[in-house]
Amino acid sequence: MRWGVLQFPGSCDERDALQACSLLGEARLVWHEERDLVGIDAVVVPGGFSYGDYLRAGAIARFSPAMEAVAEFAEAGGPVLGICNGFQVLCEAGLLRGALLLNESTRFTCRQLELTAVDATSVELSTPEGAKVDNRLLSIPAKHGEGRFWAPDGVLDALEENGQVAYRYAPGQNPNGSARDIAGVRNEAGNVVGLMPHPEHAVDPLTGSTDGLKVFEAVAAAGVPA
Amino acid sequence: MAKARVLIRPKEGILDPQGKAVERALPALGFEGIEHVRVGRMVELEAEDPDRLAELCEKLLANPLIEDYEIERLDGAA
After folding, report:
1. ipTM of the complex
2. Looking at the domain that runs over A2-222, which CATH code has it been given?
């Protein structure tokens, strides 16, 4: 698997994303002026403050040459993962539905929290001792000021009915006032996924959790490599 | 060049935490009786082709899903 991690002026999590991807295959950065994704099997749109987040988070990044290429890549079924600012970019680009608004608290939030992966194919696993472990509960940090997922009720209903809610904050852990505790969504085809928490910061036991790798793996498995 | 001002505000019904924060701060400053504070953005610009301003707003200046916008022409044109 060859991963491409986008890099905009103002990105700040692309190095961690690159590191996470390199645990699962080959990985390289894709500068925002690049238009060529040939040889890349999966794309990560990383976190940060692309183009200073002027106007609205992600509003300007969506017009970059690299994002035009990503839109074509996604259309062809290639797997795309947007993290935090990358999620905002994907929403602004219309590749995902909804929008990310200022946190209800008006404060930047930065903490480890639990997410539930909403996936019909996930199952409860048993440990060798016979204890039930919910494989869908992930411990991943979130850090953002504008992460309140919002969409009109009709769109939220449609996302839920179509199985497009990919991740929810565990009960009581919604850090930003997101509608229906939604932390991440996918497109209708399932190959484009965006979430606010940062799986790339949870790939090494040193930092407390390796659950983030499951997010990368799920995205890689969901898309048809272009 | 046509001068214009674009006013962008959160859509009715969408929680505006910035507006709420401002509203909550007002009584402490002695401003009673002010409610429904909403905080938006204002963009001033000069356009060669003002007929394309609406398209510009739809595509970039505003996110039509969450924001309403108004274009004010400052050169007297409608």
Report:
1. 0.88
2. 3.40.50.880
